[in-house]
Design brief:
Shape of chain A: globular
Helix content of chain B: over 70%
CATH class of the largest domain in chain A: Mainly Alpha
CATH architecture of the largest domain in chain A: Orthogonal Bundle
CATH superfamily of the largest domain in chain A: MetI-like
Shape of chain B: globular
Distance between the termini of chain A: 43 Å
CATH topology of chain B: MetI-like fold
Strand content of chain B: under 5%
Largest sheet of chain B: 2 strands, antiparallel
Helix content of chain A: over 70%
Order of helices and strands of chain B: HEEHHHHHHHHHHHH
CATH superfamily of chain B: MetI-like
Number of domains of chain A: 2
Number of helices of chain A: 13
Radius of gyration of chain B: 24 Å
Oligomer: heterodimer
Amino acid sequence: MNAALTGLRRGKFWIHFSLIVYIVATLFPLVWLLMSSFKTSREITVNTWAFPKHFNFDNYRQAWDTAKIGLYAWNSFYVTIIACLVTLLFAAMTSFALSRMKYSRMNKAVYQFILFGLLVPPGALFIPLYRLIQQLSVGGIHLYNSHFGLILVYCTYALPITVFIIYAFMLSIPNELEEAGIMDGLSAGGLFMKVVLPVSLPALVTVTILNFIGNWNEYILSQLFITSESLRTLPTGMASFNDGYRTNFAALSAAVIMSIIPVLVVYFFLQKQIIEGMTAGSVKG
Amino acid sequence: MKALRNPFTYIAFIIPTLVLYALFFVYPVIVSFVYGFYQWDGITDKVFIGLDNFTRLWEDEVFLKSLANNFYFMAFSLVVNIPLVFLISILISKVGRMRDFYKSAVFVPVVISTATVAILFGVLYNYDSGLINQFIRLVAPDSWAREWLSDPKLAMLSILIANAWQNIGFFIVLCLAAILNIPKEIVEASKIDGVNGWTETWSITLPLIRPVLFVMLLLSVSGTMKVLDIVQIMTNGGPFQSTEVMSTYMLKVGFRSMELGYGSAIGVTMFILILVLTGILQKLTKHEEVQY
């Protein structure tokens, strides 16, 4: 019995050991980068493994000024937030109509039509999309080189998956709940606002996290549609800083660290929700 | 139930979605197909050339190279990433204590933007000061250090590693959830039957998580066929087009050479290829339902 127990423990020990090795190996680059961000470029080359001699924030100052991380993070932030809210509102309204309102044939057709969007990668559509954005203006605002255009495109490409998730959730709401609402004299709009939307909160949180991270990290659309330097979002701003400062290692490290920190802090507090939200779209079966 | 049969509310509720969707999604899909049949620089008149753009693809060495690289990407995901994902997930599922910590730790790279990951690895792969070469110099002769991203033989592999670093955690979480979902009774029954250790993994766990393996397969196939960001920032297809993939090539053809027709044909090909590949996968696994 005793031998069996130690055998078990030894087994677990090796499992823990392997996992720790794996995690240290994958996350060490980030630690190394953090150390490098306080060093001078020369120090990085000569004393790669050493702890920085003193905490030198020059790199951060330089990266902040040159890479304009503050400005780009702000651009990313508000584009992301607005796109998320609009997506959420539109998708919730559509999901409500499709899952609860009594137009079954139409519902099915519209739902299938929207799901088609999950099959086509936006990457395949860049050329016509680019031409379209260049030519369109809505309410006097040109879509090209504006946050407005970017927000509309972000919303569109987030809609299929968002509808997919919210629809599935709303479909599972028991009929009794809405019957009670109707007895109280609620209209369809009232039912949506006062009954279905509050009950669907878990699904709404999930999709918001999914879309928030998707938009915050989005690179290529922003790269194609935004030409003014001051309108760039964080990923495109970082990429162009990378192009210009490939040799200035220390500043580059500081810029990368600065762009990662907020994400990691949020991740630290909302791990469970973020993991759930980000993987929600893929577990369809 | 009259409240739920109000055509005005119904239309008001679905119209905003449909308008955005029709304008920025459906319209570009249709237009891609149309452009694909034309020769067009975006300025002068379009010239209808039938299927010429599509036949040209198969004689275009750069396109064929890109296609091959997309398949290299896919093969690497299937042969290296997925087995590694499975192994780590099994290990995490076998421990009780610290499980949540492991799960959170492996997921960290997933939340970082691809653009940042690409830049991070650009730094790591640097010849003089990058972490990879510094590590090699520490444990091996200096001459083993490499120009990871500017050597045509190594650039693709270097990108694949960066991509794996970012994506593996996502798949581990999916796979782990499936493993932990296997009913306890099955595992215990098999233990009573004398099955344990790796036999259990091979003959009990693996067959039972087939649905999630299928999801991982689908995501890998479609993900690697449309891969773009990481390649564009790390090498933009270079050196000497050794890392060109369909989407980077499409952007170059469309925006640099201003061949909008040919570029659209590449986009359409990419889209059809993804549909066909995922369709085949779905056919292959259609009859497999897992029963507990």
